[in-house]
Amino acid sequence: MESNSAAIKAAREILHNNDMGGYTVPTHDLYPFQWNWDAAITALGWMTFDQTRAWQEIEFLLKGQWKNGMVPHIVFHKEVDSYFPGPDVWGVDLPLRTTSISQPPVLASVVKILFEGATDKDLAREKLSEILPKLIAYHLWWYKDRDPESTGLVVSYHPWETGMDNSPAWDDALSKVPPVDWSYIRRDTNHVDSAQRPHQDEYDRYLYLLDFFKKMNFDSRKIFDNSPYKINDIGIISILHKATKDLISLCESSGLELEQLPLLKEKISATEQAISQLWDADSSSFLSKDLIADQLCPAITTGTLMALYGELASPAQAEKIKVLLQDWLNACEFGLASTHPNSDKFEAQRYWRGPVWLHINWLIALGTEQYEMTEITEQIKQTSYDLIEKNGYFEYFNCKTGEGCGGDKFSWTAATAIYWFL
Ligand code: GLC
Fold first, then answer.
1. How many domains does the chain have?
2. 202: which residues sit within 8 A by CB, 6+ positions away?
3. Which residue has the least CA distance to atom 12 on ligand 1?
4. Given pLDDT bands bounded at 50, 70 and 90, which one contains residue 254?
């Protein structure tokens, strides 16, 4: 890189420019609100040079938390019309408007990093005591509302909830959702080349699901019983699992004997026992599961690798995943392609069907490190560094050419780079 200090300066500038005064937009125009897992990852970037601001990012996100504990996928802090579907389409009638689904719950894991890395310990302790009860409520919401039958595997009701919107893993399940019966104008393709975005056909179904949640009055049990789309996403399950372990450890190290801790511990072992249902020996990979069709979703994506991040793979499974991962990394100039390049669904520049996402690389590298895959961990880090050095801070990158795709000056890409390797 030209010099790390120039790269750090550029990354910090992105966070400053995307700062709306307490929350950071992922990028202006394309995503003008606060997103759930973006906020968590972005806080890691803020933490490296402004700890107060890092805590504030989390506090702003939690302002959108629902009474039932859910932390929404978008908090619409201010009205902006460059985005579709906005708050009226979601139809959530709250003073601070939000969407009605969540996103991969990496939040508690980030809070643990912020707390342990804090140099201002008084501030960190004060913030933690306010935030912990909210995190506990969030995790209990996942385990109760999203797994009402206590199977150990939470469900997700929308591709947007998985954070990997048009991943080929959802293709079959989504194709069975009816298209919406009203017309609309997308805004995303005003900002980004449509060849890098999901297809219209997928959008029609994304919107049908929004209407369905409204029709169910956002009632968790009714949605569980009637949803035409129900997925055990291995990505969410693994990220939740890791975050719950981090949450328990945060409570214990703060000397908090909370009454909810035994229940959270039970949930940890329930997931560990259930996870083998998502292992597919033929592909040597964990897979998500379509609960409506009662079958595994065949696509091998970076979501499936989150099992390493959650430490849900047995040593024998991890050995098999290692072989797959090596081949996957070597198949493209820039790793790690979000869909395995051997897949017939792979597209090098279409969003979650092939491009590289920096924060995902970071999560996977944490996973491979836990399993002592030292060379692979280094390879993921090096390819991530090369990508940024060559192309800057885009939303995602073409895995064959490295070309930046989607939104430019993107918060979580800048934040991940500063925190991880700059
Ligand atoms: C897209 C991504 C999602 C992200 C959001 C904001 O919808 O798929 O993961 O949170 O943009 O960056």
1. 1
2. 159, 165, 166, 174
3. 26
4. confident
- 163: CA distance to ligand 1 center in Å? 6
CATH code at position 233: 1.50.10.10
**How close is the Cα of 371 to the center of ligand 1, in Å?**
28
Helices (H), 254-391: 261-274, 306-309, 315-330, 358-370, 374-391
Q: How confident is the model at residue 1 (pLDDT cuts 50, 70, 90)?
A: low
CB of 246 within 6 A of ligand 1: the answer is no
Position 129: which residue type? S
Q: Is the CB of 38 under 6 A from ligand 1?
A: yes
Q: Token pair of 164, please?
A: 């990997």
Alpha carbon separation from 266 to 68, 106, 163 (Å, rounded): 20, 20, 26
Range of the domain at 115: 5-420
Each residue of 403-422: pLDDT tens digit?
999 999 999 999 999 999 98
Catalytic sites, residue numbers: 165, 395
Q: Which of 27, 31, 36, 189 to mutate to test the pocket of ligand 1 (most atoms within 8 A of CB)?
A: 31
Gap from CA of 259 to ligand 1 centroid (Å) = 35
